[in-house]
Design brief:
DNA-binding; homodimer; two-stranded antiparallel sheet; binds zinc ion; Arc Repressor Mutant, subunit A; alpha+beta
Chain lengths: 133, 133
DNA sequence: CAATTCATGTTACACAATAACATATCAGGC
DNA sequence: GCCTGATATGTTATTGTGTAACATGAATTG
């Protein structure tokens, strides 16, 4: 399942596995707590691993939550824009991408001479299953 | 200039003015420091004012910065989606909205049965003036 | 085997946000 | 005027999030 993950180190592996096990986003300190038994003692151990995992594209940061999720589409990450629909009730996160939005943001940036380095798109709300029907 | 701002209280006014004076986003603690002479002593005084200002739509929160800006378009805030292009070099923030993106996000949500409560769109990068040409 | 680079461990600290509780101010209703 | 509920404010302490600084260990390379 886990495809060609670029040779993670021990700590990176531990953090990545913790995020993969979880069924929702985890804060760095929650990860730290989960890895106490594996020898983790300080936040930096988590943050350093997360930095690498983010660079590898294996993990995403949810800015509006100060939390992290394992990437749901380890494949085609050619997309500059990755969006997240975050349910505030159950905590589930739905990762998506949309070429139209991507193009639109790109042309907006182009028009203004703005060179985007990172794009954040996050929807906070209530998912179908949590919604009173 | 400042249109029909809905009767701000003293603290709300102070915080709003601080954000309006600034030429970029301010963190809550920066605001606190700027308002020491006006009697501000604790973060809560800032956060409480910000909560109201956010509710009034006079201020926006930049999730990827943990910072706040005065709204640049106090008028037509009928838009659900408000985007920000944030220059990581000079700190300038460009507020924009785009109906195409808005529609696209809305139909995405609709299709999934997701009910969005808040939408975050933030571009981090380099603005035209800061870009080596 | 150095020399370099990268991963790791540890302590202390800075920055962001809230909890809990007390006090003050103001608007109606009587 | 006086009570009362609602909102705004002040203050202290605490929790949560993220880094700085420095030391050590392991791997790579010439
Ligand atoms: Zn992904
Ligand atoms: Zn849900
Ligand atoms: Zn605005
Ligand atoms: Zn700039």
């Amino acid at each position: 399942m886990t495809a060609e993950t670029p040779d993670l180190t021990k700590n990176q592996r531990l953090v990545f596995d913790a995020l993969s096990r979880a069924d929702g986003p985890l804060s760095a300190y929650t990860i730290l707590d989960q890895l106490r038994d594996d020898g983790f003692r300080a936040p930096l151990q988590v943050y350093r691993a997360l930095d690498k995992l983010l660079a590898f594209g294996l993990v995403h940061r949810l800015e509006s939550l100060n939390a992290f999720v394992a990437c749901a589409h380890p494949h085609c990450h050619r997309h500059a824009m990755i969006g997240f629909a975050i349910c505030e009730t159950c905590g589930q996160v739905d990762e998506f991408s949309d070429e139209v939005i991507e193009d639109r943001l790109a042309s907006f940036a182009q028009a203004r001479g703005f060179v985007p380095a990172k794009t954040t798109v996050e929807l906070r709300g209530q998912c179908a299953r949590c919604r009173p029907n």
